[in-house]
Amino acid sequence: MDSTVQQQKNFAIEFARKLASQDYGTAYTMTATGYKHSTSLEDMQNKFEVIVTDDWNIGQIVAGEYMASWPNKQPEDLGWVYVAISGDLYSEAITVTICNENDQLKIREVEFGRP
Question: Looking at the record's lineage, which domain of life comes first (predicted)?
Fold first, then answer.
């Protein structure tokens, strides 16, 4: 696997881990400026907590499918990653679009919940 792809997957996993550990402030710093303009920290937290409740014991967090091209890909976009979040009750997921912002990986878009 390409090291750039692995870096993006690792970044997506780290973002999901921050959400799962309720470290929303750090997760929010991992998002792109455009995301921050459209979504507040509280909105991001609420969207995650709709799919993963406080009493849910988080298990493994793993990156699954990766895409380098998709419809509506923006020029700054690098990759799209599906991240599975297992738990003791059920499994959930997020999908993230990773972009390059000022030579740093950032999350441009997040979809909460399994497709």
Answer: Bacteria
What is the count of structural domains for the chain? 1
For residues 29-49, one letter each, b for 16 or more C-beta atoms within 10 angstroms of the residue's C-beta and e for the rest, the string is ebbbeebeeebeeeebbebbe
Residue the block writes with tokens 């750090």: 26
pLDDT tens, position by position, 41-78: 999 999 999 988 777 777 899 999 999 999 999 999 99
- Element at 104 (helix H, strand E): strand 104-112
Q: Is residue 83 within 8 Å of 63, Cβ to Cβ?
A: yes
pTM over 0.85: yes
Q: How far apart are CA 111 and CA 115, in angstroms?
A: 9
Which CATH number covers residue 16? Answer: 3.10.450.100
How is the chain split among helix, strand and coil, in percent rounded to 5?
35, 35, 30
Domain that holds residue 31: 3-112
